[in-house]
Amino acid sequence: MMKKQQFIITFLLILFCCSNSLYARHAPTGDSLSKKESGLVTIAATAGIGDLTKLKDAINKGLDAGLTSNQIKESLIHLYAYAGFPRSIRGLQTIMSVLEERKAKGINDPTGADASPIQNEKPKYERGKAILEQLTGVPEKEPKTGYAAFAPTIEIFLKEHLFADIFERDILTYAERELVTISILASIGGVEPMLKSHLTICLNIGLSEEQLQQFISTIESAVGKTQAVEAQKILDEVLANRK
What we know:
The protein has a domain of 41 residues. The N terminus is likely disordered. Helix 2 packs parallel to helix 9, helix 3 crosses helix 5 and helix 10 packs across helix 12. The longest helix has 23 residues. Helix content is 74%, strand content 0%. The chain is mainly alpha-helical. The protein has 12 helices and no strands. Keywords: Oxidoreductase, Peroxidase, Signal. It holds the Pfam family CMD. GO terms for molecular function: peroxiredoxin activity.
């Protein structure tokens, strides 16, 4: 009898741990942004506008807050999908120099985990489509309309590359990737429809209104009041539409 009870308890613990690991793939961490999450916002925003002096300071603070070098590197790789290769590469060059300087001072920052191999053998388009539907909570419509119908090639690139090749990597959670995304979009400006969509995704995957308000404050500190005011307008619109 005791062995049977122990088996049941062990089974339930394994089931609980597995469920938690799946949820952690995209779950936010709490009611307010953690220091690591705020660090990612500042890193993404300053890298997005190419302010390498502020980016260097942001990377140092992010490492001090507990971000691994691989998490920061991944956020700067993610950056290129929204701000282009030049900004991404300059960001990567900046973290390289920061790590060298810190190592010279005797600071050995943790590298962190590498991305796990992708085991899914489905076509990348289908994988990307499934991830996008999970993020938005809305089934993809057929036939395509708007830019997707006008330029179907870019729609394929988005599904296969952005949402499969990039979002499928597990170094950052979905919530962390979305924080990086909205930070880039808010900092570069002129992409309000995209920022609106990704703020909606943030709420859909569990980030709270309080966390997004904190994101706005962090953007103001990182890149300026103008960007924060514009981002606040879009967030207010998103929240009003949900209510």
